[in-house]
Amino acid sequence: MRILLTGCHGQVGFELQRALAPLGELVAVDHADCNLADPEAIRHLIRAARPNIIVNPAAYTAVDKAEAESDLAFAVNAVGPAILGEEGARAGAFIIHYSTDYVFDGTKQRAYVEEDATNPQSVYGQSKCDGELALALVNPRHLILRTSWVVGAHGGNFARTMLKLAAERDSLSVVADQWGAPTSAALLADVTAHLVRQQQRSPESFPCGTYHCVAGGETNWCEYARHVVGAAIKAGKPLKVMPDKIRSIATADYPTPAKRPANSRLDTMKFRTTFGLELPHWQRGIDHILQQILSTS
């Protein structure tokens, strides 16, 4: 089995290299190897690699910057997956693609299920939504995993930012009215490897489609920051800010170019029952990541 992995140096891609390596011949590429904004480059890559499975965590993820770079965001997040799907279908390849809570407007009171209507409120969200639709249209042999608040030990992310700021500043203010589940890149990678094995064992009966895949539990950004800082202090990291000194603020007090969903909670019942997998609580994944970050800082 030959697996083509895009975005191999990103948070999820980095973990996927580890998780997918034992499953077959892994062809791992990043932006320098293939620009996903270039349809011809994508076509050349897939025709040269001749993969059985394509795993695509690569994306344009600069949420605020996307408001001013909409052409690039749509090229990578919408057109790119369409070309991957089209060429994958031509090669007979199954494709796994990752999407986001930003496809929803965040106004629902409960967790979103897969069948809820999408209504993205940002360029980033719309580009990812269009990518889902385009991929599903051109390649029925697909799996789309919507996730949220991804964090890994490799690369920049919210946890690293909070640790840096807590070491430099005497006070922090963090938004407390946006809710979701911080999801470990390692969890996504391990889940993906399990799904690849399932698909290879039963390709004809594999339940293709769109699923929500996030860690268990829920929190807001402020409580998330307090957890990160508290864990770091407990581990002996010298920080200026204590968890109880991190002030909660409203989204309105911290304006950004792109609108964020107030409710990023994704219901994972369909995923868990279909694939027979459990998704551990978000704190478990974050604590493991913090151990890795703190051991090298």
Automatic annotation (TrEMBL):
Pathway(s) served: Carbohydrate biosynthesis; dTDP-L-rhamnose biosynthesis
InterPro entries in UniProt: dTDP_dehydrorham_reduct, NAD(P)-bd_dom_sf, RmlD-like-bd
Organism field: Dechloromonas denitrificans
GO BP terms in the entry: dTDP-rhamnose biosynthetic process
Top EC group: oxidoreductase
Cell division listed as a keyword: no
GO cellular component, one term: cytosol
MF term (GO), any: dTDP-4-dehydrorhamnose reductase activity
Protein family membership: Belongs to the dTDP-4-dehydrorhamnose reductase family.
Keyword annotations from UniProtKB, A to Z: NADP, Oxidoreductase
Top-level taxonomic group: Bacteria
UniProt key word Membrane: no
Record-given protein name: dTDP-4-dehydrorhamnose reductase
UniProt catalytic activity: dTDP-beta-L-rhamnose + NADP(+) = dTDP-4-dehydro-beta-L-rhamnose + NADPH + H(+)
